Amino acid sequence: MRNEKRKHYRESEQERRLATEHAASKRRRARNKEYTFVSVFFVLIFLGLAGYLVYFNAIKRDSFINSPYNTRQDTFADRVVRGNIMSSDGEILAQTNVSDDGTEERSYPYSNIFAHVVGYDTNGKSGLESEANFQLLSSHEFFLTQIKNEFMGAKNVGDTVVSTLNADLQTTAYNSLGDRRGAVVVIQPSTGKILAMVSKPDFDPNTIAANWEQLVNDETNSSLLNRATMGQYPPGSTFKIVTALTYLRQHGTFNGFSYDCQGSITKEDHTIQCYGGTVHGQKDFYAAFAKSCNCAFAEMGTQLGGAALLKTSENLLFNQKLPLRSYRKSSFTLNGSSGVPLTMQTAIGQGNTLVSPMHMALITSSIANGGVLMKPYLIDKVQNHAGDEVDTTEPEAYKRLMTDNEASLLGELMKGVVQNGTASSLNGRGYTVAGKTGSAEYNESGASHSWFVGYSNVDNPDIVVSVIVEDGGTGSEAAVPIAADVFDAYYFD
């Protein structure tokens, strides 16, 4: 009996001990769960903060630094003489002149020629003056010099921004455009370097303060508007590049296409004519593109449909963000429910489609670069006052807009335009060119803007040129001669 009691006592003690240990273990697990939750919470906060810092420094840094609301820039201006802006070929595009009494004046030796792309530093900032504001107000002078200037209360000299702009190409494009309204963009497709950007009407940045009220209130000329990036134009027949790419993606080839052009086409009581009522006759795809046959492409558009054209257009960055600091988004509104008349018009570059000369230059650059669009840029490098390099921009691929094969086949179409089509005046000039002309009607009377987009040295492309001349007529009349001047300047000057 006594043994049984002892046994029962031991079992009871063991049960109590196990119960106590279980309760303690349960309490420990609860505490550990709380500790884990708190730890995970703080780890997530840390990762979020780290992620934001990475995002801020990698993506938003420049826009924050150069923001007009960043008051630290005013502090820099009190301590640093604003640096120079240079062209890639060594020309001064903007500089600060300091008088004996310390008065500073920003001057632009080329006056109107670089007005929009270099910009101004009075009554706000624009162009490179805005984009490179932080760099221009930073100084990497020799540290002993900086100490000396600090001790004497003198300003340090700001860094020099060397742009990608070529003064000769810019001047040629500016002079060739003459007194006409429009824009010219020149890009190196393999790197994304912007070599020239002209917009007219323009202004003199040297007198921007004195003429500010007049410029702001002049709605007739809109001289402050950079038409190269902010202009919105119907693309005209340059859009046939997009229609052709849509056809290629549906059929896999241009071979087998045939259309008998009679000078006009009518569907649902809507008639489209080829330019001047020209009857092109039986044409394959390459000939229809080279001759810019509106009838063939209008018929093609109805077969492709609005949904397919929309998809390709958005692949080419219509209705999308562009890799630029300042621009107006291109617009493409056609869709699967759009009617036949609007589809016909849109397929030939009319309808409601709007695009900038810069955007057309980017599309052409991707064709010239095997389908890959390089991120366009204006700042090549930054140097200190002594000429030592502080920073440099490395070319960067932005996005693949099309396959290499698609780019190659579009290039073949564009070569035909120069060899035996609407841009034949560019043939036989000592270099090869592939391109597309356009005549974009902008009112009911049939007046049209003149377009050309293309690239040179077609087997290993050197430069892309995009030209629009407002109210210039056909592409071959106004835009092509300007492009020819730019190409000639690149190869022969």
- CATH arch. level architecture of the domain at 212-492: 3-Layer(aba) Sandwich
CATH topology of the domain at 212-492: Beta-lactamase
Strand content: 15-25%
Overall body shape: flat
Number of helices: 17
Got a strand count?
19
Please estimate the helix content.
Answer: 40-55%
CATH class of the domain at 212-492: Alpha Beta
Low-confidence regions = none
- Classified in CATH, the superfamily of the domain at 212-492 is DD-peptidase/beta-lactamase superfamily
Major β-sheet profile? 6 strands, mixed
Largest sheet, order of strands side by side? 4-3-2-6-14-15
Structural class: alpha+beta
CA-CA gap between termini: 121 Å
Radius of gyration: 31 Å
Mean pLDDT across all amino acids: 90
